[in-house]
Amino acid sequence: MRILGGNDLPRYTYRCDVCGESFEIFHSISEKLTDCECGEENSLKRIPSLPFRVSAKPNKIKAGTLVKEYIEDVKKEVRETKQNMSKGVDDA
Ligand SMILES: [Zn+2]
Question: What residue numbers bound the domain in which 26 lies?
């Protein structure tokens, strides 16, 4: 199990007021980072709104991909069914 990163956890963007570095970190909603990797304490500010947009996007892509795959499967099945049907007609 990974501590940072993962699909189940929301992604948060932090920015350090001291060194200007920004981070994208996966962690649970109850957690909050305050200390930057540069050694500064309480310098990290969570950038709002972005996590929600970012977390909503992959879900949409995933759902769309699944639908597309499903449609492709159905198309394939229909094509095969038609082939079988025309074959049946030819034989008859
Ligand atoms: Zn920093």
Answer: 2-47
* Domain co-membership, 32 together with 64: no
In contact, 51 and 75? CB cutoff 8 Å: no
Ligand 1 mean position, distance from CA 76 (Å): 54
Overall domain count for the chain: 2
CA of 52 to the centre of ligand 1 (A): 24
pLDDT tens-digit readout, 39-92: 999 999 998 754 455 555 555 556 667 777 777 888 888 888 888 877 766 666
Residues 6+ apart with CB under 8 A from 16: 22, 23, 36, 38, 40, 43, 44, 45
Tell me whether residue 34 is in a domain.
Answer: yes
Encode pLDDT of 19-43 as tens digits: 999 988 888 888 889 999 999 999 9
Q: Does 64 map to a domain?
A: yes
